[in-house]
Design brief:
Layout (H helix, E strand, L loop, with lengths): L3 E5 L4 H11 L2 E4 L1 E4 L5 E4 L6 E5 L6 H17 L4 E6 L18 H11 L4 E5 L4 H4 L5 E4 L2 H8 L8 E4 L5 H11 L4 E3 L2 E3 L6 E3 L12 E8 L3 H12 L5 E8 L5 H7 L2 E7 L7 E3 L2 H9 L3
Parallel strand pairs: 1-2, 1-5, 5-6, 6-7, 7-8, 9-10, 9-13, 13-14, 14-15, 15-16
Antiparallel strand pairs: 3-4, 11-12
Helix pairs in contact: 1-9, 5-6
Bound molecules: ribose-5-phosphate.
Length: 294
């Protein structure tokens, strides 16, 4: 019997292949069919005693989630003894509490679904919050910040400043600045309307940023709303060039275009969600996290 299989669906083949090579493990790619009503059907060949499923649950989130559960179910049915999942982008992690009365804490349900298919351990990247992590029995969070900082260190930047678009990202921006040996971190004061989702950013800044290049670092860029508001404020204060870096570039609809129009020079993300902006490969860090387990 195969000892260890890296199992993946069509959305994460490249990253899964890189991880499998680093581990010297077998790669099993599930074939996928989507029926006309949107239901997924997954077919998977022989898998090993240990299964590592690699799949981000980026949009279409529910579809990717059910496909991940299906792959785990198949590994269980085939007698795998240990199943873990590498879910670089863990969807629903932002729904880690009831923000409005009557809201379901969705990430808690996701954790229960994983247990139901015997997913013993989860490895994810830059999870949105500690609270989201607390719903899982066994989860490891890998930081993409050192890899992003390494990429930024090769960029030509003028007197750079690290910017967090909100208070929640303060530690991330500080860690990024430390890796890059940058002294200044600017934390913007963002608020989001809980019902409409509209974002506002305070214009008063504590640091003079004129003519300095800014790297706005965030965990997720989704609609681009947070980044665009940040760019507007930075531009008003005479910033130099603005770059955006993140772990997960979801870039819904025409977000990338709107971000560029707001004056952002470039977007740099990891390959947690494949796109033309996935310039930073997570496989070294993810393989390292897996090596301590297998
Ligand atoms: C929010 O707390 C997150 O860290 C991101 O700033 C946010 O999810 C980005 O979303 P969007 O691009 O839609 O503003």
């Amino acid at each position: 019997m195969i000892e260890t299989s890296v199992v993946t669906g069509p959305g994460s083949i490249d990253l899964a292949d890189k991880i499998a090579r680093r581990l010297g493990a077998d790669l099993a790619v599930a074939s996928l069919r989507i029926f006309s009503d949107g239901e997924s059907s997954i077919k998977l060949g022989t898998v090993g005693k240990n299964c590592i499923i690699v799949q981000s649950t980026n949009p279409p989130t529910d579809t990717h989630l059910i496909q991940l559960l299906m792959m785990a179910q198949k590994c269980t049915d085939d007698g795998a003894q240990d199943i873990c999942a590498v879910i670089p982008y863990l969807g629903y992690a932002r729904q880690d509490r009831a923000f409005l009365d009557g809201e379901v804490v969705s990430i808690s349900l996701v954790a229960k679904l994983f247990e139901s298919v015997r997913l013993k351990h989860i490895i994810t990247v830059d999870i949105h919050s500690e609270l989201a992590m607390s719903y899982f029995r066994s989860i490891q969070n890998v930081s993409s910040v050192p890899l992003l900082a390494d990429y930024a260190s090769k960029m030509r930047l003028h007197d750079p400043i690290a910017v967090s678009p909100d208070a929640g990202g303060t530690n991330r921006a500080k860690e990024f600045a430390r890796h890059l040996d940058i002294d200044d971190v600017l934390v913007l004061k963002k608020s989001r309307h809980r019902v409409t989702g509209d974002v506002t950013v305070e214009e008063r800044l504590d640091i003079d940023i004129s003519k300095r290049d800014a790297i706005v670092i965030d965990d997720i860029i989704s609609s681009g709303g947070s980044l665009i508001k940040a760019a507007e404020v930075l531009n008003k204060k005479g910033v130099g060039k603005i770059y955006a870096m993140c772990a997960h570039a979801l870039l819904i609809n025409d977000a990338a275009q709107k971000i560029k129009s707001a004056g952002v020079e470039d977007i740099v993300s990891t390959n947690s969600v494949p796109s033309q902006y996935s310039k930073v490969d997570l496989s070294p860090e993810l393989a390292l996290a897996l090596k301590s387990r297998y």
